[in-house]
Amino acid sequence: VPEPLSIGILYPTTWYGDPTGFDAAIKRLRGLDPTIEVRVVEYQEPPERRHRRQIGAADDALDETPPVSDEVADVLATAEILLAIDLPTDIVSRAPRLRWVQSASAGADHLLRLGLDRAGIRLTTGAGSNAVGIAEFVMGRLLEFWKDFPVIAERQAIRTWRPRYGRELAGSTIGLIGLGAINSQIAARLAAFDVQVLATRRSWSPGATAPNVDEVLPADRLHEMLIRCDAVIAAVRGTTSTEGLMNAKAFAAMSPGSWFCNVGRGTLVDEPALVAALTSGQLGGAAIDVQRHEPMADDDPLWDAPNLRLSFHNATAPTAMFRHLHTMFEANVVNYLVGAPMTNEANLPHAP
């Protein structure tokens, strides 16, 4: 009798947003192979802790293992595969049979820092599962700025009949920092607006092209792109090469009165420089869904920055995202079973 292949689902199932849909997803997983057993239990750490781990904060408390329930410990002890948003700091010792972790989020730096690769444990991310939802959110923010919706709403609130006219987006130039799943979906939606789309890409090579993008530039020509754009949208990972990339020099390189949006990682932006650019009018507006410090402190200068739209790491559409995530996960399970490469592999494990 073959040994069961134990899969643990650890993220809060309420995030799926559809109990019937979640049950159907679990049933599909069990149907992929007769050896598969699926166990569902919740393990979630505070978002602030996850954020600090993602950005590599130096904090001894991050090395401590939060309390783990007996039920979670039991699942970890037998699991070969986990689908999770968080994992205990001592996951390697708690899960001796673990061979693969599917992250429930696109960013998995907080999991990479747990030593999975050194233990021979593969890690795949949920990159792309939230791309459509975030792209739609960005388009909403872009049109909000271009059409001056906030001023129109203010005049409605005070019952003032005074027309406020926006601008036409067509004919504008939009720059994309990074060309992963999110900005690729943004480019696809921009195609309907008759704009020119430029993009910088870390993996650029001469003659590089991309769907719905008019010109692809290498990452080291960022400032050359910035000066040509009416709006710039960033969606890149938080790495040493992107740390503080949008600083005072970058904002000064942008066209006066242009618009900036960040839906990648908060570490990309020098936030005092952003506030200064908005205050001086160098930037006409901005929208950021991610910040360096999450949650933001009550006295954070971002709260009062002029013409800045804040959101709180909520640009995605969770109910759609988790459907996409499970579709990706199911395909990866099939590939895992036959020894084929999996989508979004984030590490190359060393032999344990």
UniProtKB/TrEMBL annotation:
| The keyword Kinase belongs to this UniProt entry's keyword annotation | no
Q: Write one Gene Ontology MF term.
A: oxidoreductase activity
Domain D-isomer specific 2-hydroxyacid dehydrogenase NAD-binding: from-to ranges: 141-315
The family database entries (Pfam families) matched by this protein are listed as: 2-Hacid_dh_C (PF02826)
This protein's UniProt keywords = NAD, Oxidoreductase
Q: Per the record's keyword annotation, is Ligase included, yes or no?
A: no
The record's section on SUPFAM superfamilies has: Formate/glycerate dehydrogenase catalytic domain-like (SSF52283), NAD(P)-binding Rossmann-fold domains (SSF51735)
Task: Show the segment(s) annotated as Disordered.
Answer: 47-66
InterPro entries from the UniProt entry: D-isomer_DH_NAD-bd, NAD(P)-bd_dom_sf
Family annotation (CDD domains):
2-Hacid_dh_1 (cd05300)
- Protein name (record): D-isomer specific 2-hydroxyacid dehydrogenase NAD-binding domain-containing protein
Q: What is the lineage of its organism?
A: unclassified sequences, metagenomes, ecological metagenomes
